[in-house]
Amino acid sequence: MEAERPNLKTLYESIVKGKTDDVIAQYENIPKPLRYPLTPRHDSILHVAIFMERESLASEILKKYGDPQAGGLLAEENIHGHTILHEVAGTNMTSLAKDILRLDPNLLVKTNRRGETPIFRAAHFGKTEMFRLLANELERKFPNASDVLPHLQRKDKTTILHTAVLAEFFDLALEIARKYEYLSLESTRDEKGMIALQLLSDVPSAFKSGRNYGLLQRFIYYSAPSTEDTKKEEDSNRGDTGVSDQGPKLPPNYDVCVQCFFVVVRWPMTKRIYNEKRKHESAFKLARFLIKKDLSWTKPSESGGIEGDPGSWPREKTVPPKTTEGTGSSCPTGGSNKEGGIGGGNEGTIKGKETPPTLTPLLLATSTGIVEIVKEILRVYPQAVEHESYEGQNILHVAIKHRQLEIFRHVKEMEIPMQTLVRRIDCDGYTILHHVGNMQGYVGGRTQPGPAFELQEELRWMKRVRKIIPDHYQMHRSMEKEKTADEHFEKSNEKLFEEAQEWLKQKLKLIPHHDQMHRTNGNGVTADELFEKTHKELLKDAQEWLMRTSESCSTVSVLIATVAFAAAYTVPGGSNQETGVPVLLCDPFFVVFTVMDVLSLASSLTSVVMFLSILTSPFDLKDFHHTLPLKLQFGFTFLFFSVAVTMLAFAATIVLIIHLKKRWLIYTAAFLPVSIFAILQFPLYLASMTTWKFTLKFIKNCVLHKCTPSSASEDH
């Protein structure tokens, strides 16, 4: 027994190195059955040879010890229940798989501990050739398609299509969906009630809209050649929809040149982005196929949401009847999930267990920001835009809740009656404006470079939604649950806020009932109140960040102004002792020095004034929408300009004093700190550019309003 251990060690090392003769000889000398396992998984030598990818060694072992009649290795399983064919299915050893099936065809339908057949393992590891081989063998063994289905899924009802999507082998998943179309139907759900399109809609990284590329990465991405299948599908889609190609007319040999570029230039980033583009194209082709089969949006909603007068909203929620798969849905008992979860009317029973409601693919793709799936669903089924979840939330509720701006704009631009969507009130009594105040639905967290700009973006969302919602909906109160005393009085300022609210409620009791038609629930909040309550922490962070930034930048601006002011009295080259005129007054670079120094002083002092105005502002919530970001933008602009002209003044001084011939070196050195400053502050500057756009648009509208004859006559 003790002598067997070193033999197993030597045997394992021989298998790893692929020494066929040594493996056969050593295995012959070991007593059978083995008293100690070869590996922790209790693999046989054939298992080890396969997952070590020693195909020739595995073939020799199979020929010598694979006879099932003689009790060979072919029938052995490891602790996971994997047969030899299970191991081979995770590789591309198709010839070895044929030999195994020829010796024991029953291994084709043998399952492991999780109920996985070999073809399931092939789909899980993305082995296309192995999948095709095993699929053909299954068709030959089971001519009736209904007999094949039990072998295409495991115990938890996960099918080979589900696992291919989860493993992100989208080309293979598309092949599976085309071969076994019933796997893409709504009736084929896993244990969690998910279909393949729902799983795909929960993987934003598989689509272009789920990635945030930089400038160089975007250039490489759009320059990367597409597959021929993708080009053909795009051309056919243009023909089907009647949309002509409005892109630039490229030369006939453009694709050839681009492909040569990608062959020659083999940067790691280039290869990675090219592979990502191929994956995005494959995922979108799969989504197109699955969308045509999906009709989950057709299920009628039996939610408690209403359309019409907000004042008619009930005070209490009723207990909904339990629903089963394939029926309508209703609001959950006791309210909805306030942590950002939304259902989609797919509540059902599997194996006698009730599964929680799941999102339909349309709403799930909306929440995760997969624009491609949302647009494709609405292109194929435009009426799906009116679909609602079991919480009574439509696509606008979900897009606003998860801050999906592109989807929000796309829905607005559709030729549909927006009144139906914007008037919908969900099971919590939330209008679409209430969901602006819900900060639990962020997919990727904060995307802006600072809390101030994050709060500004939130206020812009408030303004966007306020434009499309009816005026009287803005005073509608939701059915928000009461908070505990600890949550209300956690901080002293919040306690003061609550006391002010109680005082306001007491005053509102004196108002006639018809003036309170929209305040149907005393425990609820309006959209503005909810926004202020949920954005308290963000407002505090924005105030602190803006104060720190303004203090730091004002210090730098004062320092630059001091240097510029001192330079004005210590001119390069000195002054004439008798007349006081600068000695280098006639030198052209002296004019450059003078102009740059004056601009440096003026711009730095202007920057100081802008930052001081920020520090002395009240930092109210409404100020972060436009006023404070605009002041910060002006301050950064003048500060950046003062740094640039100060370095130019310094360069002009060096040229005046030293008289170098290679002056471009001086200017290069002068612009080095300016360039570094610009690169480091570019994201912050870019975030504030929208403030400039808003200002210019506001000025343009004011000018056009004043210049319009009708407006002028009305003013008179």
From TrEMBL:
Locate the region Disordered.
227-248, 300-355
Domain (PGG): residue spans on this chain: 544-655
Q: Where is the composition biased (Gly residues)?
A: 337-347
Bias-annotated ranges (Basic and acidic residues)? 228-238
Gene3D superfamilies the UniProt entry points to: Ankyrin repeat-containing domain
List the GO terms this entry assigns under cellular component, sorted alphabetically.
membrane
Annotated keywords: Membrane, Transmembrane, Transmembrane helix
State the superkingdom. Eukaryota
Transmembrane spans: 553-571, 591-615, 636-658, 664-687
**Name of the featured protein:** PGG domain-containing protein
Task: Look up and give the organism this protein is from.
Answer: Carpinus fangiana
